[in-house]
Amino acid sequence: CRVRNEGNETRESIKERMCAPGAKPEAVAASAGQGAKASRGTGDQFNKNGVLRNNADWRCILWIAKYFVLSALAWAYDDVIAASLPLSVATFVVLSYYSFAGATIVHNTMHCRCFNNRDLEHVWHQLLSLTYGHPVSTFVPGHNLSHHRYTQTRMDPMRTSKLRYKWNVMNGIMFQPTVARDVFKMDMRYLSLKGLQGEGFYRKSCQEWLVMGVTQIGMLVLNWRKFLLYVWLPHFFAQWGIVSMNMLQHDGCDVNVDQDSSVEVKNYNGARNFVGPVVNFLTFNNGYHTIHHMHPTMHWSRLAEEHTRQVQPHVHPNLDQQCMARYIYKSFVSPGLRVDYLGDPVVFPEDEDVADEDWTIHHADDGMKLADYDVDLTPMGILKALPMLPFKLLCPTYSPVNKVD
Q1: Interhelix angle 85-109/233-250, nearest 10 degrees
Q2: CA separation (Å) from 332 to 220, 247, 269?
């Protein structure tokens, strides 16, 4: 039977009853850096002899292929589409969905890689970067190493407590624009650190930036209007949507009881799940969020089954939402109140320090200081770095741009 909030049970008593520290964690850092190795203890059995490690990923390949085909058709038949407002709207909706689906596939891939062959996996990452307009390697620092390890704490640059609008719909709309710069700063800081350490992740990330940048600049020059309508706008929606999912899945939930990333904490009430079949078909099971945090490298095709087995008996019933659209309407439109999973208003201390706390130093070599690899994202710092950018892209081992005076 499901655990329910009996009577006037407090959040603290529910935490004590439901959240219990477990054994040593799955290797989140290692899995992140390589597109995710199989997690110990998840029970995943991967096919070592086929092209794909899990045959369910053929559907991911089909979806990405459909994205490129549909985008090419829209570009080729622009005159037909532009002549009809309904067709233009339908084209935007379809391309935006497939770009967003690409972002969910990126998320899954960066936790659990698709191909047995590393070269094919690298090509896959390049293609995925083109589906939503951002290098997939940035998921490692921006998501795997920060959000998963330090969920909703000051080391999580995309924690929902940064949004404090009184009108809750603004919290939903403005979440991605608000956290984007902080996430990007941590991405660049981690990338700078990996460059100093001479790791392959740095070269791979720079290659993704180069391929994506050249491709998008080429399309922009070829036809700026088509690029804006059929590439940039769907990509923007995809990036906004995948980041905004964080607001839906974590706002008003419990923060991890044990913030030490060296132990696994089974915080059953740390995330909100959307368990309807439609949303999970369209997003490759991205609705099952609690089990994903418990086992980050578990293959997406197993999340529904394992949610039922491991999470459902323990999670508060309010954190298993059947319909995402209904939840969005109730939370952001009518009545539009920002409440936690117990129905209480979400309140933040007025004197709370909202500044991010750096986590990259935990990946630095002994003796390194943050100042050795920190990045300057002020307008002047960016201007100083721009002249060196072509050299960095062509030769990733060139001295870090943040050190150029």
Answers
A1: 60
A2: 36, 11, 21
Q: Is 183 helix (H, G, I), strand (E, B) or coil?
A: helix
CA angle 201–398–29, rounded 5-degree value: 20
Torsion sign, CA atoms 289, 291, 294, 297: negative
Pairing of strands 320-321, 273-274: parallel
Contact assessment for residue 268 and residue 18, using Cβ atoms and an 8 Å cutoff: yes
pTM of the predicted protein model: 0.84
From 104, 107, 106, 111, select the one nearest 38 (Cα to Cα): 111
Quickly count: other Cβ atoms within 10 Å of residue 167's Cβ: 11
Alpha-helical runs (H) found in 6-56: 11-18, 28-33
**H or E element at residue 320:** strand 320-321
C-alpha distances in Å from residue 402, one per residue of 182, 255, 355, 382 = 17, 34, 22, 9
pLDDT digits (tens, 9 = 90+) for 61-114: 999 999 999 999 999 999 999 999 999 999 999 999 999 999 999 999 999 999
